[in-house]
From TrEMBL:
<dbReference type="GO" id="GO:0061630">
    <property type="term" value="F:ubiquitin protein ligase activity"/>
</dbReference>
<dbReference type="InterPro" id="IPR035979">
    <property type="entry name" value="RBD_domain_sf"/>
</dbReference>
<dbReference type="GO" id="GO:0007265">
    <property type="term" value="P:Ras protein signal transduction"/>
</dbReference>
<feature type="region of interest" description="Disordered">
    <location>
        <begin position="467"/>
        <end position="496"/>
    </location>
</feature>
<dbReference type="InterPro" id="IPR034932">
    <property type="entry name" value="BRAP2_RRM"/>
</dbReference>
<feature type="domain" description="RING-type">
    <location>
        <begin position="173"/>
        <end position="213"/>
    </location>
</feature>
<keyword id="KW-0175">Coiled coil</keyword>
<comment type="pathway">
    <text>Protein modification; protein ubiquitination.</text>
</comment>
<dbReference type="GO" id="GO:0008270">
    <property type="term" value="F:zinc ion binding"/>
</dbReference>
<dbReference type="Pfam" id="PF07576">
    <property type="entry name" value="BRAP2"/>
</dbReference>
<dbReference type="InterPro" id="IPR001841">
    <property type="entry name" value="Znf_RING"/>
</dbReference>
<dbReference type="GO" id="GO:0008139">
    <property type="term" value="F:nuclear localization sequence binding"/>
</dbReference>
<dbReference type="GO" id="GO:0016567">
    <property type="term" value="P:protein ubiquitination"/>
</dbReference>
<keyword id="KW-0833">Ubl conjugation pathway</keyword>
<keyword id="KW-0862">Zinc</keyword>
<dbReference type="Pfam" id="PF13639">
    <property type="entry name" value="zf-RING_2"/>
</dbReference>
<dbReference type="InterPro" id="IPR013083">
    <property type="entry name" value="Znf_RING/FYVE/PHD"/>
</dbReference>
Length: 496
């Protein structure tokens, strides 16, 4: 079965305002014009094909009315990404995906995926959302998409039959045994060319095909390189220990390995030819068929291959093989002894470290228990102190409010006290003045009464004389007491 795919890689840009900018170094410019691919189970059938990438020099916008195809191809999908991861990656577009097919090329550790969408708009949406997007946040691989213009499949068979007109038998899904219709459910075709419903394959826990048990996606393979310098060209592998080194035209690490270990035979990884370093030539030159590469028997002509020469060569080869095997046995036994010794020392060191770690864990566990108890005690004490602090805070607020009220009352009372003191002072002054006046009046009254009594005790002639008499006050010579007495007498007389 041969297949040929024609793919158009159209560079599409999103409009930003009124202008569209072109990326100078887009991935599409780095793609080759042709990519060989294959799919299928090697033990059953392998489908080879050639995929042509037609590049356009004119950049187009996805929103322009440009002829495109509802089929896309994801290039360079890492082999570590399983079909489950692939379906998770396109999970948001499951409802608009009609068919997905996994294919691969000769490049190791990667494969390609053909995706057919329900409409052109869905394909454009998928292109805009996932082109250049990383498959996951850990690895640096990005999704590289190209538009597939058409897919031409050429099939060859042993016989032919007339097709049934207007009728197409739908295949069955081997997981759920239901018919697979692209218009109803999305279909995924694995690398072994077996098709299933996408939902059914998601529920399939294994990474192999449910039908043939072949891997759904290519298995990751380890890339060969020189163990010393990392070169990936002109590599030779030692047939004794598996050491990989570069050839004599690079850095001669394969020959240096022979000098160090005396491992005589090494095989070139590209053409699988074995080199003998002791004889400095190839070990054999077997004749292989050009069609399938299998070793075939070649009949030599003439008498050049004598039996004696063959026997001697066989005997020499047996001696050489015996000596080489003996040397290799000694080498590997010594290496095993060294490895056992190193392993025993490493085991003892690991046991000591393990014991030390166990002791530390025990001490840390005891310490953790003690700290947990201390923490609980501190938490209880902290809770008590918090409650006490809350209570004291409440009391402090009450005391502050009370002090505030007392200070206000004190200020008011001090004002009233000052007013009362002023009032009392004024009242005292008034009373003192009144008291002085009363004392003056009392003195006058007492003097009047004493004078009246004295006059009453005098004889009648004297009283008459006093009544009829006059008091003359001298101008300057009369003393004050007499004048005062005269005045008092006069007041007494007037009063009498």
């Amino acid at each position: 079965m041969d297949a040929a795919l024609a793919v158009t890689n159209k560079t599409s840009l999103e409009e930003q305002g009124t202008c569209a900018m072109a990326v100078p170094d887009s991935p599409s410019k780095q793609l080759p014009e042709q990519i060989t691919f294959f799919s299928g189970n090697p033990s059953v059938e392998i489908v080879h094909g050639l995929m042509h990438l037609y590049k356009t020099n004119k950049m187009t916008l996805l929103k322009e009315d440009v002829r495109r195809s509802p089929m896309l191809c994801i290039l360079t999908v890492p082999a570590a990404m399983t079909s489950h991861d692939l379906m998770k990656f396109v999970a948001s577009f499951n409802e608009v995906i009609d068919h997905m097919k996994i294919i691969r090329d000769s490049t190791p550790n990667q494969y390609m995926v053909l995706i057919k969408f329900s409409s052109q708009a869905d394909a454009d949406s998928f292109y805009m959302a996932n082109n250049g997007r990383q498959f996951n946040s850990i690895e640096e691989d990005v999704c590289q998409l190209v538009y597939v213009e058409r897919a031409e499949v050429l099939k060859s068979g042993d016989g032919a039959s007339l097709p049934v007109m207007d009728l197409t038998e739908l295949p069955k899904c081997t997981v759920c045994l239901e018919r697979m219709d692209e218009s109803v459910n999305g279909i995924l075709t694995t690398l072994c060319n077996h098709s299933f419903h996408s939902q059914c394959l998601q529920r399939w826990e294994d990474t192999t095909c449910p039908v043939c048990r072949y891997c759904q996606t290519p298995e990751p393979v380890e890339e060969n390189k020189c163990f010393e310098c990392g070169v990936q060209e002109n590599l030779w592998i030692c047939l004794i220990c598996g050491h990989i080194g570069c050839g004599r035209y690079v850095s001669r690490h394969a020959y240096k390995h022979f000098e160090e270990t005396q491992h005589t035979y090494a095989m070139q990884l590209t053409n699988h030819r074995v080199w003998d370093y002791a004889g400095d030539n190839y070990v054999h030159r077997l004749v292989a068929s050009k069609t399938d590469g299998k070793i075939v028997q070649y009949e030599c002509e003439g008498d050049t291959c004598q039996d004696e020469k063959i026997d001697s060569l066989q005997l020499e080869y047996s001696y050489l093989l015996t000596s080489q095997l003996e040397s290799q046995r000694i080498y590997w036994e010594n290496k095993i002894v060294r490895l056992e010794k190193d392993t025993a020392e490493e085991i003892n060191n690991m046991k000591a470290k393990f014991k030390e770690t166990i002791d530390k864990c025990d001490s840390f566990e005891h310490r953790l228990n003690d700290l947990s108890k201390e923490k609980q005690a501190v938490e209880r004490r902290c809770a008590q102190l918090n409650s006490k602090v809350a209570k004291l805070s409440t009391e402090l607020k009450e005391e502050q409010e009370m002090n505030k009220c007392l200070r206000a009352n004190q200020t008011m009372l001090q004002g009233r006290l000052r007013e009362e003191e002023n009032t009392h002072k004024e009242t005292s002054e008034q009373k003192d003045m009144q008291l002085l006046e009363m004392q003056e009046q009392l003195r006058d009254v007492m003097f009047y009464l004493e004078t009246q009594q004295k006059i009453n005790h005098m004889p009648a002639d004297t009283r008459q004389e006093i009544q009829d008499g006059q008091i003359n006050i001298a101008s300057s010579s009369s003393p004050a007491p007499s004048g005062k007495l005269s005045s008092r007498k006069g007041r007494g007389k007037r009063g009498k």
